[in-house]
Amino acid sequence: MKINLTKKQKLNNDKHNCGLCGRNSKTCQKTECCGNWVCGNESDYVMFSYSRDICCRNHRRFTLCGLHYTEGHDGDWKDCKKCLNWCEPEMVAWYGTNEYNFEKHPNPPTFEPTFCVQCKKVISLSMDGYTSFGKEYACEKCMSDGFEFKK
Ligand SMILES: [Zn+2]
Ligand SMILES: [Zn+2]
Ligand SMILES: [Zn+2]
Ligand SMILES: [Zn+2]
Q: Fewer CB within 10 Å: N-end or C-end of the chain?
C-alpha cells in the first residue's frame, strides 16, 4: 500500500488563523454553515463546563448562522424569518450580533428589557442566570434567596 506522506504532512502544517479569536492553530477548520475558518474541536468540550473557548462550538451553538444551518432553514440566515422568530427577540438579537459571528445581523430585532418579577432589576437573557416561568422571569440572586413563582 502506498501512503502519500507528503500530502499528510502538508495538511498538518496547514495552519489557519481563526476568524473569531485570531489564534493561528492547526485545529482550525472551515465551518459547515458559512465556510469560515474557526479553531477548536467540538470534542474538546467538557460536558457542563459551559466553556466558551471553543470557537467552532460557539459559532455553531450561539449564532443565528449556526442555528440556521443546524435547523436546516432555507436561504441566507440574515434574511431568514424562521431565525427571527426562533426565540425571544433579545436572544435572537444576541445570537445575531455577538462576538461569535463573522458577520453581524443587519437588522437585529428590537426588544423590551426583561425585568425580574421580584427585585425588578433588568435581566440580560444572554449573559445573566435566570429562571423563567411562563412569561415571568426571576434573576439568579432572587432564586438563590428562595424566591418561588406563584403557580
Ligand atoms: Zn478561535
Ligand atoms: Zn456560520
Ligand atoms: Zn434560519
Ligand atoms: Zn431579582
A: N
Q: Give the tens place of pLDDT for each residue, 68-109.
A: 999 999 999 999 999 999 999 999 999 999 999 999 999 999
**Contact predicate 40/27, CB 8 Å:** yes
**Residue indicated by cell numbers 455553531:** 60
Taking residue 30's Cβ as centre, other Cβ atoms within 10 Å add up to 13
- State in Å, rounded, how far the first CA of the chain is from the last one: 69
How far is 66 from 101, CA to CA, in rounded Å? Answer: 9
How close is the Cα of 98 to the center of ligand 4, in Å?
25
User: Could you say which ligand is closest to the alpha carbon of residue 140?
Assistant: 4
Query: What pLDDT band is residue 12 in, cutting at 50, 70 and 90?
Result: very low
How far, CA to CA in Å, does 135 sit from each of 94, 110, 114, 132?
A: 19, 18, 10, 7
Does pLDDT of 151 surpass 80?
no
SS3 24: strand
The H helix count followed by the E strand count for the chain is: 6, 8
In single-letter form, the type of residue at position 110 comes to T
